[in-house]
Amino acid sequence: MSRTTFRERLKYWFDNTMSRGTGALIGWLALVSVGLIAVVSGLTLWLAPGEAKENNGPLGVLWMTLMRTLSPGKVASDAGTAVYVGLMLVASLGGIFIVSTLVGLLSNGLKSKIEELRKGRSRVVERGHTVILGWSDQVFTIISELSKAHASQRGSVIAIMADVDKVAMETDIRDRVSELGRTRVVCRTGRPSEPADLEMMNLGSARSVVVLSPYGDDPDAHVIKTLLALAKRRGEHPPVVAAIASSGNIAAARLAGGPDVHLVDSDDTASRLIVQSSRQSGMSVVCMDLLNFDNSEIYLRSDAELVGMTYGEALTAYQAATVIGLRKPSGVVLNPQMDTVVAAEDEIVVIATDDSLIRPGKTADAADEKAIATVTHGAPRPERTLLLNWNVRARQIVRHVDGYIAPGSVLDIAADHPDAGSGLGGLTNLTVNVKECDTTDRYALESLGAGLYEHVIVLSDDRYGAQHADTRTLMTLLQLRDMQSVLHERYSIVSEMHDENNRTLAEVTKADDIVISDTVIGLLLAQLAENQHLAEVFRYLFDPKGSEIYPRPAGDYVRPGDPVSFITVIESARRRGETAIGYRLGSQVNNAPAFGVVLNPDKLRPVTLGPDDFVIVLSEH
């Protein structure tokens, strides 16, 4: 083994010193400057004593040499012996090198610092802020909704950290979110799965944390890794809400995040909404209205005035709010039995436009008995459903259809996807048939005989990018709508799309429901970021085992054409064991943004419901 020489050690030490950045380089430059000034001053005192004496001795010579070094132009005014002028020239030439190098170092250092600031690596010093970890299209929905929720708050802040360029994030937010109100958005570039990067977000002072599934392959792996990084800070971070793309990864995510993390199963939630929308026209519009912060919102409220009342009596307790269920110590129950007594420890689940409006109102007017209808429904009949296209959620959708539908029903799958119809064993109520079909081809669609079906579900083909898949979906919807018009057929059409911006185009097709899965998940995450207790409410709404939302013909509840107060509608629904929460006007089903849906109407304001209108209720069947 060769021995390290002193020269090699010195060079190694010098290289390490130089690699420490701009500060180290400026330090070396200062050392060179001091050496140059000391040498030139010493030679001047020795070789030009006359000029040194004229400049007040050693201190004067040091000052004079320093000025020549920092301001080389002063050499032009020097006069004296050749030795003196030569020494000042050396100091000036050295000064040119030192000053130019210093300017370059300062310029590069300042540029590097500005670039570092633009990358967003400084620590967030806000308090009470909402933290979003990760980047996807859902982030724009969450920012928009939280901005609406915090419209009346000063100093509201949303802090985002993702492995994306800070400037690019800020540009996308400006382009995609039209109104922020009083809310400020702070972006930071970093890896949410790295504990060191999480320190930038000041999690200990945050209000809540939202973890998104990022773009790319296996997004759930990134979410689970982020949950593990957050778990290392247990007790130091606020409540966490996370979105999981694949249902199969829920168990692993729950283990990684612990019991305090609320997980949103994106695939399962979107699948349930698609199925419910296919069976109840307008279901997606109602859910979107409940999930956003624009009009009707869900609140939990303790009200001593309702203690001792039955749930049926509490339905008319508020004029400007609609009671939909109870949150008991055992959990949330929507549309419980009408004789359920409200206990002191119970919370009322209500729909209201603002929590300030949740107060007892003057609703003592009796229902109009003459206007109440007495229509009854028979047992459910077998149905035929057509499923167009195939994707990773299709198996869940088929299984959810099987849970809703009557025995003996038929589901036909038409798609040219290689996996179409696979993995569907164990169905109890459905008979499944698979047909190969290009769903954008008019003749292929006509050959399916769509008029034989009650429901048609159009899925987004996951073999294509989001925009291309949406384009193909639009083509299919246009063909179906034209076929309905030409052949005078009627069946419900629900479609799945990716981009909210394509919804406006899809409205031309007049589909019964359009489910934008990313938007739905973004709205749900925003709601849970504001109030995690609502997780039980929304879980109940999307669960087929409990009461669900049903838009039903208004003629089943009140006489068509007669003006009645909404209290009459509530009473008619109550007698059926249902909770009425609003209505849908058939004449406005194609008018955005509400599409005819009115939730939580004023109970005393008269409304006239016709044969084409619907009452929206919570019911178990």
Describe what this molecule looks like in 3D:
This protein is an alpha/beta fold and 621 residues long. Among the domains are: 16-119; 130-259, 3-Layer(aba) Sandwich (Rossmann fold), CATH 3.40.50.720; 384-517, Rossmann fold (3-Layer(aba) Sandwich), CATH 3.40.50. The protein is built from 20 helices and 22 strands. The protein has a 6-stranded parallel sheet, with helices on both faces. It has a 6-stranded parallel sheet with strand order 13-12-11-14-15-16. It has a 4-stranded antiparallel sheet with strand order 7-10-8-9. Helix 4 crosses helix 5, helix 6 (138-149) crosses helix 18 (517-530) and helix 9 (219-231) packs parallel to helix 10. It is elongated and about 125 Å long. The model has no long low-confidence stretch (mean pLDDT 83).
Short overview:
This protein is of the alpha/beta class and 621 residues long. Helix content is 40%, strand content 18%.
Round the Cα radius of gyration to an integer and report it: 36 Å
Indicate the overall shape: elongated
Structural class: alpha/beta
CATH class identity of the domain at 384-517: Alpha Beta
How would a textbook summarize the main sheet? Answer: 6 strands, parallel
The percentage of residues in β strands lies in 15-25%
Number of helices: 20
Distance between the termini: 85 Å
Structure characteristics:
single chain, 621 residues, alpha/beta, Rossmann fold, six-stranded parallel sheet, 20 helices, 18% strand
